[in-house]
Amino acid sequence: xxxxxxxxxxxxxxxxxxxxxxxxxxxxxxxxxxxxxxxxxxxxxxxxxxxxxxxxxxxxxxxxxxxxxxxxxxxxxxxxxxxxxxxxxxxxxxxxxxxxxxxxxxxxxxxxxxxxxxxxxxxxxxxxxxxxxxxxxxxxxxxxxxxxxxx
Length: 151
Prior knowledge:
This protein is mostly helical. It has helices at residues 4-15, 19-26, 30-37, 47-60, 65-76, 103-119, 133-139.
């Protein structure tokens, strides 16, 4: 068992790298690099990001990234022996499975949308041919009042 943060900090100092350089090289924000070195993992987004940041930062510093991820899992992740690819189903209200949209609702919405777009005329401009130009613009919502007759 080793200190994740201290070993990262020592490796960074030993290489003569500051946070700005590490941030540019790893594309990890400096505040997250500091959080890793101070083992303030609650300041980081999610565990997936923490593991990715640990691996990337450690490898950038010439360390074994997987070793740091394994150490993080053993110390901070409950049930680290589980397969990380298996994700439990999300729990809904009162621990029940979340309600799924009934297939008939999806079918109804799809049909309603298709009927609505099929009934609606695509372009009314041809029916306005021969009418004054202001009428065509008013039809498209571009003109509020009709142009007056020239006197």
